[in-house]
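General statements about sequence and structure are easier to judge against a single worked case. No coordinates are needed to read the tokens, only the vocabulary itself. The sequence in question and its structure tokens are set out directly beneath this paragraph.
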Amino acid sequence: MKALLVVAICAVMSAATWFLAPLAWSHEHYVGLIDGGGRPCCNGVDCKPVEAGDARLSGDVIEVRDPVSGRWLPVSDNAINVTRRMPDGTISYDVRSPDARMHACILGRASGREVWCLILPGML
């Protein structure tokens, strides 16, 4: 019985680690990111990986589906030209994705949300 309890606790802890670990590391990768216009990409809660099917090319414009409103939001050139401001104030152009997925930083209220930064795969 005790062994079964230990196995159950380990299973729950493993599952919790699997599901909660991305929350622990996710926003540290967005710290210091700035768009092509010089504004910060994220205030700590707006940047997330883009799920499969939530990005598309409409003509020559990339669009990302807003997870709040469900609307397709156009991505400006400034939003794609992402760099990182380093702690010493220098700018890094070597911005890579740890998971090879697209990431979007979407800010604003539900009626006026916009993509501030879009990090393409291999760029965060």
